[in-house]
Amino acid sequence: MIGQQRDRQQRRKPGPFDLGVSARWLEARVRPVIRRGGLSPRENAIVERIKLLKKEAGSHSPSAPTLIKLIPELRMRVDACFLSNPYATDLFLDYLHREVIRPGKLRKLLEFYPSQNRVIAGKLSAAIGIATDHLFVGNGAVEIIQAILHRFTGDKILVNLPTFSPYHEFVRPDTQVVYNLLPKDEDFRFDAGEYLEKVRRERPDTVVLINPNNPDGGYIPYATLVAMLEEMREVRNIIVDESFIHFACEGDDYAYRSLTHEIDRFPNLMVVKSMSKDFGVAGIRAGYAVMAPERVKSLLDNGFLWNSSGLAEYFFDLYSRPDFLVEYERKRVHYIRHSRRFFKTLSGMPGIHAYPTHANFMLIELKNGMTAEDLVCRLLVRRGIYARACDDKKGLEPGKFIRVASRTRSENRFVLRGIKDALR
Questions:
Q1: Residues 157, 178: contact at Cβ < 8 Å?
Q2: For the chain, which end, N or C, has fewer CB atoms within 10 Å of the first or last residue's CB respectively?
Q3: pLDDT band, very low/low/confident/very high, at 4 (cuts 50, 70, 90)
Q4: Which residues have CB under 8 Å from 126's CB, separation 6+?
Q5: Helix (H, G, I), strand (E, B), or coil: what is residue 141?
Q6: Domain residue ranges in the chain
Q7: Domain 115-308 = CATH 3.90.76.10
Q8: What topology is assigned to 2-89+326-423 in CATH?
C-alpha cells in the first residue's frame, strides 16, 4: 500500500513542501533552466540570502521549510541535508491517516495534554525490552543531551572531532571540553587504544561516543565498545549516542546491535537515541535515553513532566506494536539496500573523496578546487538539491567538506546527476 501511495505521489505535481518526487519529473522540470558556468546576478542574490540564513542558524543548517518560506524563488526538490528514512515517514503517515485523521481523532491528540513522561516510557519499554525505570523520554535527542550535560557532567568532558556539535556547545560554562581529533588521513578512523590512553591521561568525568558518528559515519563495532566500557568503569559518565544505529549492520545480514541492554552491567553508561533519523519523524520531537534508574529519577524530579507531544505519544504507541515494527523492518532494510548503492556510485565520482560510512549519509571532501559553500549553493540554486556544507564543523577543514544524505531511490538518482553536473 505504501509503495502505491508513493507512486501516486510521484505522478502528481508536488506542492512547495513536497520533496519526495520522481527523478524523471525533476529532470523534466529542472533541466531547461540549468546552465553551466558562473551564476547569474539573480542567482548570486539568492545565494547571498542563503548564506545569511545559514549564518543565523549557527552551527546547524536552516531547515528546508525555512528556506522555502523565506526564499520563495528557490525550487527545492530534494532535501539531502536532512538525515532520515523517508520510507519510514510514509509508513508513519499511513498509520496516522488510517487511525487518527480519517476517524477524526486528531483533535484529541492536539487539544488534551499527553501522558506524563513515565507513562510514555512504559509504552516504549514494551518495544525495546528495557524496564520503565531505566527510560527517560525526551522532546527529541537534543533535549536529552542538554539535560544530561547540565545535570551529570562535571569539570571535564572528552568529545571526538568531528562530531555532533551540541555535545560541546551545550556544556555548562564551567565544564572544560577536551577534544580527541580523528585523523583525516585515516578516513577519520576511531582507534580504541589511543582513545583509552587519552582517557587515562586527561581523566574526564564524562566521555561521548556517537556510533555511527556524525558527520563522517564512522562505526565502532559492538565488541570493541563493550571492551572499552570495561576499561572505563572509573569514568563517571559515558554517553553513547546511537541515533544512527538502525543503519549500521554488523555481518552479512541487516541486524544492528545496541548497548541499551548493557546498562545494568555498566551503570555509568547512558545511551541516547533519536527517533528522527530511522523513523523519519523529526517534526514530532521524539527521543529517549537508557540509563540507571537513579539518573532517570534525578532528571524527572527536576522537570520534564509533559515534555512529549500528543503526536509523539501516538508514535510511541505505534512503536510498541508488533505489526508496525514488522512493516518498519521491511522499510529499514529496503532503505539500507538502495542507500548502499547510492553511496557506492557517489564514491566513484571524480573530483571528490568519499569517506566510508555506516550511517544514512556520506561525508565528501572536495578535490577539484571548488569550495563546499560554492557546491552547496550551486546545487540548491540550479538543481533544487539541498546538501550540508560542513564549514562550521570543528575538526573539518573549512571549505572542503559537504555531507549528503540518502533519500528515496529516485531522489538519489537525481542527486547523483546534480552533483556530477556541478563538479564538472
A1: yes
A2: C
A3: very low
A4: 320
A5: helix
A6: 2-89+326-423, 115-308
A7: no
A8: Aspartate Aminotransferase, domain 1 (3.90.1150)
